[in-house]
Design goal:
532 residues; alpha/beta; Rossmann fold; Luciferase, domain 3; GMP Synthetase, Chain A, domain 3; 7-stranded mixed β-sheet; 6-stranded mixed β-sheet; 15 helices
Amino acid sequence: MLGGIQTGKLLVTNLIDHAAREHAGRELVSYWADGTLTRSSWGEVGLDARKFAGAMRRLGMTKGDRIATLAMNHLHHLSSWYGTAGIGGVLHTVNPRLFEEQLVYIFNHAEDRVLLFDKMFTLIVEKIKPKLTSIEHYIQFDGAKAGYPIYRELVDAENGDFEWAEMEETDPVGLCYTSGTTGNPKGVLYTHRSNVIHAITEVQPDVMNLATRSVMLPVVPMFHANAWGIPFAAAAVGAKLVFSASNEASVLWKLIREEKVTHSAGVPTVWLGMFADLDANGGDYGALDMVVIGGSACPRAMIERLMMAGVRVGHAWGMTETSPIGTAGAYPANWDDLSAEEQVDVICMQGRPPFGVELRIVDDAGDEMPRDGQSSGQLQIRGPWVIQRYFQAEEDAVGDNGWFDTGDVAILHPDGTMQITDRAKDVIKSGGEWISSIELENAAVGCPGVAEAAAVGVYHPKWDERPLLIVVRKPGSDVSGADVQNYLIDKVAKWWLPDEVVFVDALPHTATGKILKRALRDEYKDYRLASV
């Protein structure tokens, strides 16, 4: 052998060690549920992670054990992530917005041994506790002691002199369950390797553009696909994190302005609320430079508003099964040559896959379709941070050559840009042709007076299905169905125009803020159009 390269392992603990060593003084901020704000640093969080690992070891936790959290975004949650990784454990983040029966199923299926929870979720814990079969220790993250050990007391009882466990980069380190829109939720088990590669990818300019100078406020919860991997990516570059246990728009704007936040990430419904607060109370965008929007397709009007304010929009797509970044809104090489409208056109699509991710679309027979910007097919993905098999499943979740079927319908353009047209089950099939409910909804949201919109297919004797548009008005608005129809005339194909527009006070949402189409389809399955 003439030479060689060292073969260091890709471990999540390396991320916190790097941040604590090279960016020890870089500030981290936590706004708590009780309205208090604390300041810490990567050095302090690194020490707390080792203390937490020591506390877990004293409770008998060891390699492979699942440690669950029912919590919002804050610094104790962050240090528990890294401390759990340090004992070789698996950090299982659980969504507190799920239904009781889903929570019970998830905890029992994961066989968690410890549950750490925010005080605000005590009632949930008390209610489901008798049904939980594996949890041995309950620990309260924050607030005054109320019958449970307190996180800070356990951590402060340790000296932090803890050596990380021996691990392999292919060992599991995180567990997150899908929302379970069909059947029981399914667990996605992340490895040290997948999380580290994902973090290194995420800091790239074409993905989230994170650096040491960045100040990131992730509105996306830590229980939603690892907060899109942001706590790992931020550690990789020593970026400042601003956590908020509250998602109230006024609180978020205050933090954005006072902490000089440059980056944020969240689902479109978050920004609808942020805009409503901005319209009602005024204010500016502070130092905000980039917003990553994902979880569901971002309306064009939202993208335009942010871009007109000088904020870069990173329109991203992914899933719990993809860790979650699958594509990101990278600027093409000819960006500066595009008109403002053409630039918005680009960002309205879901972006391009970063290195490591491969995409393809297939037809119903499974045959690959061309990347011609026109053909629409079932979207499949593969890569080093894409699922192979669900937790405790007996069979792989992928097909031939490792391709995972996302359940989305998409178009691939010649330059690799991906454009989601719908979820396979949400597409409206009219006269043998497909109508994208996503595009119709996002166009409708641009209509003055419309706060939210959802499109579902309803029965039609001739066309099989026709679109019904369900709209929530903005406060004080008297926008009518005719107004919406007229607005859409030059925004979508004429045959896409909804046959009717109905107004409701609110739309149902999933626990992660997406419009719950399944509930709408069930509610309107027997709806009869006036023209039929």
